[in-house]
Amino acid sequence: MMILSIDTAGRSDAIGLIDGRRVLADFVGDVTHNSLQGIIMNIDAVLSNAGLTLADVDGLGVGIGPGSWTGVRVGITVGKMMAYATGKPLCGVSSLDALASQAGDASTLICSVVDAGRGNIYAGFYRRRGGVTVKQGQYTAGPVEGLVARIREPVLFVGDAAQVHRQTISALLGDLARFMKAGEERQGSATALLALSRLERGESDDALSLVPLYLKEPLVQALAARKR
Amino acid sequence: MLVLGIETSCDETAAALVADGHILSNVVASQMDLHASFGGVVPEVAARKHVEVIGYVINEALGSAGKALEDVEAIAVTSRYGLIGCLVVGVAAAKALAYTLKRPLVGIHHIEGHIFANILSNPHIPMPHVCLTVSGGHTMLVYVKDLCQYEVLGNTLDDAAGEAFDKVAKFLGLGFPGGPVIDRLAAQGDRTAYNFPRPLRRSGTVDFSFSGLKTAVVNRFKGSDISTLPVSDIAASFQEAVVEHLVSKTVQAASRADVSAIGVTGGVAMNSRLREVFAERCRQEGHQLFFTRTDLCGDNAAMVAAAGAARLAHGESADLYLSAVPNAPLESAA
Ligand SMILES: [Zn+2]
Prior knowledge:
The complex is a heterodimer of chains A (228) and B (334).
Chain A: E1 2-7, E2 14-19, E3 22-28, H1 35-49, E4 59-63, H2 69-86, E5 90-93, H3 95-100, E6 109-117, E7 120-129, E8 132-143, H4 144-149, E9 155-158, H5 160-164, H6 166-173, E10 177-179, H7 187-200, H8 219-227
Helix pairs in contact in A: 1-2
Chain B: E1 2-7, E2 12-19, E3 22-30, H1 32-36, H2 43-65, E4 74-80, H3 84-101, E5 105-109, H4 110-121, E6 129-134, E7 139-146, E8 149-155, H5 161-171, H6 178-186, H7 211-221, H8 231-257, E9 261-265, H9 272-285, E10 288-291, H10 302-313
Parallel strand pairs in B: 1-4, 4-5, 6-9, 9-10
Antiparallel strand pairs in B: 1-2, 2-3, 6-7, 7-8
Helix pairs in contact in B: 2-3, 4-10, 5-6, 5-7, 5-8, 6-8, 8-9
The complex binds zinc ion (ZN).
């Protein structure tokens, strides 16, 4: 099964293309670019470099965040409309899960991290169990320090946001913290592989109703809720 | 040509099908109730709603027109002027559809959309004419030389007219949006009860200003118990000042541009007193008056599809690098 994936939740856009478990392309966009402008032509380049068109794709995977609110809306809207217009199945994939799945056979706690701006991060915790990466508890959002302070064991950080906050994390955790090497991220194919797994389980999302995973309310709603 | 229009520049998620000046469907998912509790449009809340409903709105536009996606021959989207986070959703959807369906794409300036709402309503409006586009997000006077040929004559220096309605309504405890409720109350009030200032009366330009007028209302009654105030009279007097300002600057612009036709479009063009005063003044001055039909006054996508068809007829289209630009100037077709 041929899967095209899009994830625009992180600092750089990721596009992946897989044929079964075989990775055909893992595109990483320029961090300085806005997602909206290049997204379609980047998808087109990934497909045409593989000698394919959208018609050859059997399913679409899309990162639903958490991450940049505007960024993730770009990717999810593109994924939804492509699925709607082609009738191909669509699978939303958590951007944190896709990051964590890149940790390979880590034996320690895995923490995937996406930047949330102003010293905040979105994070998910995972452990490898029987060859699969299993999420531990709920995703969290908040200041780097607060999230990291709760960790009391060796942990592997995944995601370029972990690199952004590396100094803070290392200062708090010392030797307990390990980091996935920069430039090793394969968010595109990781998203596609998780989408494939969902499709193989008979799961998919509705192209019209799929929405991003924000984890945080807009500020004004948070204020209104507090007033109530 | 069958054009799919998409509009998400502010708080309405809209899609429409227009073929050769005929509206086949015009779907608007209004977020009004959502924003009412905040007393105004919250950009992030609006953007979230757009993603949630855009697919349904497009699907409904096709369904109610009895068309399939493959029947669509071109896609037009509001890509310029509006809230950036909101514009992005419509542009992303339009680009994905244009790419998947292999159809031409065209990006439209939101104000140009409103001008085309008026042209759709009045297909025989003379060219050139002067068009007032007035809503909660903008107040602009445009010399429409011909289809897609524009010159901006005047603009608001501060708030949009609709924004002034919202702020005064909020001050008077009337809720959001302010335009309809003030219009309704003003109908029972005395519009000469208070003499609020007429902005920029001696400025010599055809620009607009509403923040001083809003402040005048607030200062006049600050500290009073709102429940004891003659709210209908205040609403009527305030509305009269806004309407006079809009009408006098528009008529002045038409005289200066030496055109006899005036178009009025945008959400505030639904205001009943504005329609009355414009009719009176245009009769006196010998101008022809063209109001946008009420169902096309607010933000909608039929106007975007119509503008798109005109731009495509000029040989213009966008490439798939099309982006969203919140503060772009209104530009003529090449
Ligand atoms: Zn508008």
